[in-house]
Amino acid sequence: MTPGKLVFKNITRRRGRFIFTLLGIVIGMASFVTFMALGGSLKSQIQKESAALGANLVVTPKGSCAYEQVSILTGEQLPTTITAEEVAAIRAIEGMTAIPYLAERSAIDNRPVSVMGILPEETLRFKNWEVAAGSYFPSADAEGAVLGSVLAEQFELAPGSEVRIRGTLMPVLGVLHETGGKDDLTVFLSMPAAQQLYEQKERVSYVAVRVDRLDEVDLYAMKIKDAVSLGVVSDKQMLGSVLSIVGTVNMTLQLIAAVAILAAAFGIVNTMMTATYERKREIGILQAMGATRGGIFRLFLLESGIYGLLGGLGGAVLGFAASFVAAPYIGQNAATSFVKGSQTSIDPLLFVGAVLFSTLVAMVSGLYPAWKASNLSPVEAISYE
């Protein structure tokens, strides 16, 4: 009998034990792959949203914390304390373009959506949007809404239909081309209409600033601070702050998954140790037939490696499937809403890495049982009943 057939025979000898040991590895690796896949998608989406903001500096209410910076990138509701006078003072600084935004929330069919008050023409140029259907705002104070492409598709809204925002029916003027970011999930209103609807007279949530000279970003930040008593953060600072927050959360989730993998490793140790005691006589017969200690060691190590290989394959497939299913339902808070707008994809490197990691963990777990089996004396092994 070849070593491969012998290993297969031994693994399937106790089918119940084989299945439960394998399930432990699959679940541990699936949780690890799920968090890794969502984490990678989350990071790329954050970077995409930061680039889509199109700003070198962001002016926020004084005292804003990192949570507000996350909310700017996700389109969550923000404190509205920046006055029209402060916006005018910022826009008066030469050498830069400043665009104010009013970030609010509403619900369509009892599902929360982002609502953004904008200066129509200036924001169109600033964001380089294109209209896919219908028309754009005809004037700076036009009544009506322009929708992101994904939101329009989700709620089956088209130009000419109506959408209820904060209890008020608004005609849908047009639908934007897909941008791949949070703008696809947003309802846009003209600034005057949004301020009136949300009773925020001449106030906005934040101001996005694009400077003419990138090498003078810090100088412009100082100019803004001299003009108004507000917070100013650069795009790089904001990106670093948001990635730091999300990275901490992602690391915590991966540590939880690591505990599951560790538990699965101990399951392999237990299974292989049990197999060592149950197969003492078999080991003795192999020794009598000329098998070396090294050969027996490799036989048991191969057996544990197969557990890891099969568990890694099953865990990677289940993990990616779970990330695809989970991503659309994640987004109930600012820290995770990036995932909702992102598209999780299968990363071949992550898939291969997960399988190799699972196999390695299983083989390391099988080292002691394999050593124990290879060090049985022929007399002790063959006389075991």
Per-chain topology:
Elements: H1 3-11, H2 15-53, E1 57-60, H3 66-74, E2 82-83, H4 84-91, E3 96-108, E4 111-118, H5 120-127, E5 131-134, E6 145-147, H6 149-154, E7 162-165, E8 168-176, E9 186-190, H7 191-197, E10 203-204, E11 206-211, H8 217-227, E12 231-234, H9 235-278, H10 280-288, H11 293-326, H12 337-341, H13 348-365, H14 367-374, H15 378-382
Parallel strand pairs: 4-9, 6-8
Antiparallel strand pairs: 1-11, 1-12, 2-10, 3-4, 3-11, 5-8, 6-9, 7-8
Defining traits:
15 helices; two-stranded antiparallel ribbon; alpha+beta; elongated
Give a written overview of the molecule.
The protein is α+β, with helices and mostly antiparallel strands. It has two domains: 186 residues, no CATH class; 168 residues, no CATH class. A hairpin with a 2-residue loop joins strand 7 and strand 8. The protein is elongated, with a radius of gyration of 30 Å.
Overall geometry: elongated
The SSE order reads HHEHEHEEHEEHEEEHEEHEHHHHHHH
Helix content: 55-70%
Reported for the largest beta sheet, the result is: 10 strands, mixed
Approximate strand percentage: 15-25%
Distance between the termini: 23 Å
Mean pLDDT: 80
**Poorly predicted regions:** 331-343
Tally of helical segments? 15
Domains (count): 2
Number of strands: 12
Radius of gyration: 30 Å
- Secondary-structure-derived class: alpha+beta
